[in-house]
Write a structure and sequence with these properties.
Distance between the termini: 18 Å
Radius of gyration: 20 Å
Number of strands: 12
Largest sheet: 10 strands, mixed
Strand order of the largest sheet: 2-1-3-12-11-4-5-10-8-9
Bound molecules: nicotinamide-adenine-dinucleotide
Shape: globular
Structural class: alpha/beta
Length: about 350
């Protein structure tokens, strides 16, 4: 496993160190060759060199690595977030990572914020379209700064883009024995893109006879996720709605510090990152929870064909949470590094 590692900014650096520590431990124990190669792309690097991504940077990632691990990006010294947009959105768009994969599993009852539910009731996956929608940067200003100012932001959905994420969600459901796929949109208000999503979902779902296909408007989906998360197995939605619904998902699994994600393109190099940002106030303090990053390392292992090792990583994190061997945000008193060590100690391989 030759992995490009981009820790980034703030707590991205702290949690990435722990994720790499766990990967290293797993690979040593299982005799899997592991070569992490660190990249300095970050706010510091941008401020000192003026470079966000060097020319050919993404080409290098796609040709020479099995996967990419990224920490987090965001620094108050770069208020326009130029480096974050170039690195993070750049990777998603330039590597065409059209699947944003967000498993939402609550690993311990103590982390479940819903009064009438338990950890086992929160176990679904969100597939967020990752290359289109309102995030393509289409739009503009007219008469900026005047009382007559007009701003537009366009939501771009293509048949190819919608179809491939919907098909990926169904294929995942089929492979993993999940019986229900819900598509969520806002087709009652956003008629044109909504129509495309509705037609495509209906057509693709016919190819997967054993899987129940249903639809919820995004506002209703958010409400139902809170009312009874047991209804959900697989959710597929667009870029913006997925962005929002997956933060709600993070709250159902114990907070941003517990949330993991993959940015995938089957058959090509994929990128893995914890869901949280750079939380600058916690940078270097030892307060950042590394479990989201460590669970993300688990997704990377799974993606590269090491399913057993991935399951062992998740089980070790669950043991830590259950035993309070964790950072303060999930009820423990350990530092970031000690929480990473605690996971290593509990790996049963
Ligand atoms: N993927 C990314 O790189 C990404 C995602 C979101 C935000 N950002 C950027 O990060 C910076 C900070 O943004 P923000 O404060 O809105 O979001 P954030 O996710 O960095 O932090 C929000 C809050 O969540 C908690 N939190 C997040 N991660 C945690 C962890 N691992 N352990 C413990 N607590 C944790 C903290 O209380 C934190 O203040 C901004 O520059 C933002 O643009 C980057």
């Amino acid at each position: 496993m030759k992995i490009a590692v981009v820790p980034g900014d703030g707590i991205g650096v702290d949690v990435t160190a722990e994720a790499v520590k766990v990967l290293d431990r797993v690979c040593r124990q299982r005799s899997i060759p592991f070569e992490p190669v660190f990249f300095p792309w970050s706010a510091d690097h941008y401020l000192s060199t003026g470079v966000t991504i060097p020319p050919g940077g993404f080409d290098d990632l796609s040709r020479n690595y099995d996967a990419v691990f990224m920490g987090a990006f965001g620094d108050p010294r770069v208020p326009d977030m130029k480096h974050a947009a170039d690195i993070l959105l750049g990777a998603r768009f330039q590597l065409d990572l059209y699947v944003n994969y967000r498993p939402v599993r609550c690993l311990d009852d103590r982390l479940c914020p819903l009064r009438d539910f338990r950890a086992a009731d929160v176990d679904f996956v969100v597939f967020r379209e990752n290359t289109e929608g309102s995030y393509v940067g289409a739009g503009g200003h007219l008469k900026k700064g005047t009382p007559d100012e007009v701003a537009t932001q366009e939501d771009v959905s293509t048949r190819k883009g919608v179809e491939r994420i919907i098909r990926y969600a169904f294929e995942f459901a089929q492979k993993r024995g999940r019986k229900r796929v819900v598509m969520s949109d806002k087709s009652n208000a956003m008629r044109f893109v909504g129509d495309l999503w509705q037609r495509t979902f209906a057509e693709v779902s016919r190819e997967f006879a054993g899987i129940e296909a249903s639809h919820l408007y995004i506002d209703a989906l958010c409400m139902q996720l809170i009312k009874d998360p047991r209804q959900f197995e697989v959710i597929v939605t667009n870029n913006m709605f997925g962005d929002i619904a997956t933060d709600l998902g993070a709250a159902l699994q114990g907070g941003l510090g517990m949330a993991a994600s993959g940015n995938l393109h089957p058959g090509r190099v994929s990128m893995f990152e914890p869901v949280h940002g750079s939380a600058p106030k916690y940078a270097g303090t030892g307060k950042a929870n590394p479990f989201g990053a460590i669970l993300t390392a688990g997704l990377l292992l799974d993606h590269l064909g090491h399913a057993e090792e991935a399951a062992a990583v998740e089980a070790a994190v669950a043991d830590c949470v259950r035993q309070g061997a964790a950072t303060a945000d999930v009820g423990g008193s350990l530092s970031t590094a000690a929480a990473g060590d605690a996971v290593c100690q509990r790996l049963r391989l």
